[in-house]
Write a structure and sequence with these properties.
The chain is built from four helices and eight strands; from the N terminus they run βαββααββββαβ. By secondary structure, the protein is an alpha/beta fold. The chain has a three-stranded parallel beta sheet with strand order 1-2-8, covered by helices on one side. A hairpin with a 5-residue loop joins strand 5 and strand 6. The chain is elongated, with a radius of gyration of 18 Å.
């Protein structure tokens, strides 16, 4: 079979953490991947800027843990949960699978993940939408 530079084994729609991670894992296994994202990175994204401890192992497997740590995240050793009634419960981050959680903006995390995806060979198309599948 003859393939062109625009032939992909997998096309992933959506460049959030799951889409970027999946594309990187596939590219690391010599799969030709196209990642299509509707927005342009880095993008502002409202979230709690909380990365739970179990994500650190995931970042290691993706080869982006060093980049995440060099982005100067806040190191969180405990998490506080609040109820609507104003009660709170503080638990150590170790309860979530590691020694600490990270406080890092979603834009920085997404950008670090996207840069890594490009490094491992993922073709990324931003400001794009998938409108139909052509077989």
């Amino acid at each position: 079979m003859i393939t062109s530079p625009h032939t992909y084994d997998v096309i992933i729609a959506g460049g959030g953490p799951a889409g970027i991670s999946a594309s990187s894992h596939l590219a690391n296994r010599d799969v030709r991947v196209l990642l299509v994202e509707q927005k342009k990175f880095p993008r502002a994204k409202l979230c709690g800027e909380f990365i739970s401890p179990e994500c650190l192992g995931h970042f290691q497997r993706l080869g982006v843990a060093g980049k995440m740590m060099s982005s100067n995240p806040a190191l969180l050793t405990e998490t506080v949960f609040y109820s609507r009634a104003g009660h709170s419960l503080t638990v150590p981050s170790g309860w979530f699978g590691g020694s600490r959680a990270l406080g890092l903006s979603r834009a920085v995390m997404d950008n670090n993940l996207l840069q890594r995806a490009r490094e491992v060979g993922v073709a990324v198309h931003e400001n794009a939408s998938i409108t139909e599948v052509i077989e």
